[in-house]
Amino acid sequence: MFEITPNLNPNDQTPLYIQLYQYLLKEIETGRIPQGTRLPSIRKLADHLGIGKNTVDAAYQQLIAEGFILSKPKSGLYVAEFDEQFFTPSQDSGSQFSCLEAVQPLESNYPFDFRHGHIDKDHFPVTIWRKLTNQVLYDQAIFSYGDRQGEPELRVELAKYLYQSRGVSCLPEQIIIGGGIQQLLSLLCFIIKLENPECDGKKSGQQQLNHYGNVAVENPGYDGAREVFRQHGFSIIPIELNTGGIDLKKLAKSNARIVYVTPSHQFPMGMIMPIANRMKLIQWADRVDGYIIEDDYDSEFRYKGKPIPTLQGIDSFGKVIYLGTFSKALLPSIRLAYMVLPEQLLKSFQTNFQSYEQPVSKILQKTVALFMQEGYWQKHLRRMRHIYQKKHETLHQSIRKFMGENVKIIGEESGLHLLIEVKNGDTEDTLIEKAKSSGVKIYPTAKYWMNQNQAKDPLLLVGFGGLSETEITEGIRRLSESWF
Ligand SMILES: Cc1ncc(COP(=O)(O)O)c(C=O)c1O
C-alpha cells in the first residue's frame, strides 16, 4: 500500500480534517492517487500521521459524501472511478512548468535502428548473470556502504584485465569506479580544478588563459565529453583531425595544457592514432606540464591490424588519465565505467573526496567482479569479438553490394560503428528522413563538430551492435532503395 504524507499544520487556522481532506482531494484530482486505489484504513492513516482517528474519519467522510471515494463492505475505502475531464488541471499537477516533457520510454520503434550505443541482444549470458547476482545477494557485505573508490575486488580484476588486454599499467589503488564516462569526467574536472585553482571560472582574465582553464578536444569529437568540460567552466579549444587522429601541430600551437582524445577509435571518425603520434602526444603533455585524458570507450573490438598500446601504457611521465567503460563489451544499462588516475591527481582525489560515497551499486560491482574472477568476462569478450567481427563484415559487404560507389565507408577498423559519406546530393536531414520512411533509423554526425556548419558532406553514423546480420543486410538494402 502507498503511503500518504501530507504536510499538516496543527497551528493553522484551518482544522486538521479539512487540511487532510484538501490534500487527498488534490492528490486524487491530479491522478497522483490513481482511480481505483485502495486507501489506508482510518486506524493506519491516523497512526501513520500521528493524528486522531476522528480527524481521518471526518476527512474520509467528506470525500465519500462528494463521491471521490467509495466504501466497499468488508474490503475498505477506494478512490472512485470518474471522468477525468471533470477536473481542470490543478496548479500542483506540474502544468506550471513549461519545460516538462511527457515521460516516454526510450525504446526505438524503428524495425532497423542503427544506433551506435546499441549492443548485441542475443548473447548476454543471462543465466550466469542471474546466478552471480543471486550469489552476491547472500553476501553480508551488501548490507553496508561500499568502498568510496569502488569495490576492491573489482579494481583488482580490472587492473589485471587492463594490463593484459590494453597494456595499461596501474595498481588497483589508482582505479576509480564510476557510473559512466561522463560522470567520471565530471569528477575529474572537479579534481583538476582543485589542483589548479586558477581554472576556477571565478578567477578571470588573461592570466587564466594559459593555464588549465582550457581543454583541447578533437573536432569532430564526442559531444558528451565536450559538454562536461563546458559545464565545468573550461574553455573548449577544438583541434582538427588528420589521418592520425588529433592534429598534433595544431595542438602544440594552441595554449591548452589538457587534451581529451579517443586514440584507439576516434569518435566519431574512427581513425586509430599511430604509435609515433602517441609518443609525440605524451612528449607534448610532458613539455607543457599538462594532462592527456584518454577515452578508450570501445577498444575491445578491433578488426584489422595489431593492437597499439594505450597512451597510459607508454606514458612514463604520469600525464595520462585513462578512462574505460563496460557499456560496449558488457551492457550500457549497467552504467559502470572506470578511471585510472596518475599519482598527483589520485592524491588530490583521496584528500578532497573523502566524504563522497561511491555512486555505483555495490551489488552490481560485486557481480561484475565475480564475473571477471570466474573467467566469464574473458569468455564473453572472445565470443562478442567473434560476433561483432561477423556483423562488421556483413555490414561492410551489404554497403558494398547495395550502395557500391555511391558511398564512402569511413573508420571501419574497430568499434561498433562506422561512418558512410553519401554522395547523392541530399543533405544529412533529407537522408535521415528518407531512411525513416523505409523503417530505418540512421544518425547524423553534424552535432559532433563544435560548429555544426563545419560538417562537410553528409556523413552518417551506422552502429551495428544491436542488429542481427539479417537485419543489417535488410536495413542497408532498404536504405539504398530509399536513397538512390
Ligand atoms: C567517445 C565515447 N566515450 C564514452 C561514451 C559513453 O560511455 P559510458 O556509457 O560509460 O557513459 C561514448 C558513448 O557512446 C562515447 O562515444
UniProtKB/TrEMBL annotation:
<keyword id="KW-0663">Pyridoxal phosphate</keyword>
<dbReference type="Pfam" id="PF00155">
    <property type="entry name" value="Aminotran_1_2"/>
</dbReference>
<keyword id="KW-0804">Transcription</keyword>
<dbReference type="GO" id="GO:0030170">
    <property type="term" value="F:pyridoxal phosphate binding"/>
</dbReference>
<dbReference type="InterPro" id="IPR015424">
    <property type="entry name" value="PyrdxlP-dep_Trfase"/>
</dbReference>
<comment type="similarity">
    <text>In the C-terminal section; belongs to the class-I pyridoxal-phosphate-dependent aminotransferase family.</text>
</comment>
<dbReference type="GO" id="GO:0003677">
    <property type="term" value="F:DNA binding"/>
</dbReference>
<keyword id="KW-0238">DNA-binding</keyword>
<dbReference type="InterPro" id="IPR036390">
    <property type="entry name" value="WH_DNA-bd_sf"/>
</dbReference>
<dbReference type="InterPro" id="IPR051446">
    <property type="entry name" value="HTH_trans_reg/aminotransferase"/>
</dbReference>
<feature type="domain" description="HTH gntR-type">
    <location>
        <begin position="14"/>
        <end position="82"/>
    </location>
</feature>
<dbReference type="Pfam" id="PF00392">
    <property type="entry name" value="GntR"/>
</dbReference>
<dbReference type="GO" id="GO:0003700">
    <property type="term" value="F:DNA-binding transcription factor activity"/>
</dbReference>
<dbReference type="InterPro" id="IPR036388">
    <property type="entry name" value="WH-like_DNA-bd_sf"/>
</dbReference>
<dbReference type="InterPro" id="IPR015421">
    <property type="entry name" value="PyrdxlP-dep_Trfase_major"/>
</dbReference>
<keyword id="KW-0032">Aminotransferase</keyword>
<dbReference type="InterPro" id="IPR000524">
    <property type="entry name" value="Tscrpt_reg_HTH_GntR"/>
</dbReference>
<dbReference type="InterPro" id="IPR004839">
    <property type="entry name" value="Aminotransferase_I/II_large"/>
</dbReference>
<protein>
    <submittedName>
        <fullName>Transcriptional regulator (GntR family) protein</fullName>
    </submittedName>
</protein>
<keyword id="KW-0805">Transcription regulation</keyword>
<keyword id="KW-0808">Transferase</keyword>
<dbReference type="GO" id="GO:0008483">
    <property type="term" value="F:transaminase activity"/>
</dbReference>
